[in-house]
Amino acid sequence: DWQTDMFFKGEHVQELDIDQNVIFEWRSFDHYKFEDSYSGGYDYVHLNSIAVDYDGHLVVSARDLYEVTKINRLTGEIIWRLNGKNNEFESINEPVLFKAQHDFRPVYGKPNYYTVFDNQGYNYARAVEYLIHPENKTVEKVWEYRHSPDWYSRAMGCVQRFLNGNTFVDFPERNLRIVEVNEAGDVLMELMSHGHTNYRCRRFDWYG
User: Fold this and answer.
1) Residues with Cβ < 8 Å from 99, sequence gap 6 or more?
2) Model's pTM, two decimal places?
3) Residues 6 or more apart from 105 whose CB is under 8 A from it?
4) Per-residue pLDDT averaged across 191-195, rounded?
5) pLDDT at 185 > cutoff 80
6) Backbone dihedral region for residue 172 (phi beyond 0: left; psi -120 to 50: alpha; all else: beta)
7) Best CA proximity match to 87, nearest among 28, 95, 73
8) Closest of 65, 203, 52 to residue 114, by C-alpha
């Protein structure tokens, strides 16, 4: 796809059946404009996570738009847009939501609750949980974890919520730093590896 005499990198979201036939496809060029981006580069969207929401539709994170978009899994139409230049929501308790975010995920068993790794550019990084009210288009921060002193991660990162309420957070850039915290923000586990990085971490039970 060409626009204003420059080449821009778009994104495709596809669902395949068991025989690898494409049964659903969504193209960023059909929905996002270049001027929506904060990067100014050819990779103006930079999708970095996709998840199936509690109602079966899709939520995708567009890093360079500072936006999370909910997509109708049947029609491809946009259901809502959170944050960024096309934000549809009023924030109840935060003047600034997330920037350059990663790993936007629904919280299991809690409809309309979502976790995200908020990179916040060069300022700091954090894990955040939001409650979204799609009917009245409001969003509310209900939980966050920021390390003290602040860690930052300009790129990458992840948040994993466990069924017991604990949260696993990966601050990956420059020096890999992983923590597991409880709902009060108390650190239960911390792992650091100097000089190494990791795009995204997950914790699983191990059997062997």
Assistant:
1) 38, 66, 118, 119, 120, 121
2) 0.90
3) 49, 51, 114, 115, 116, 159, 160, 161
4) 76
5) yes
6) alpha
7) 95
8) 52
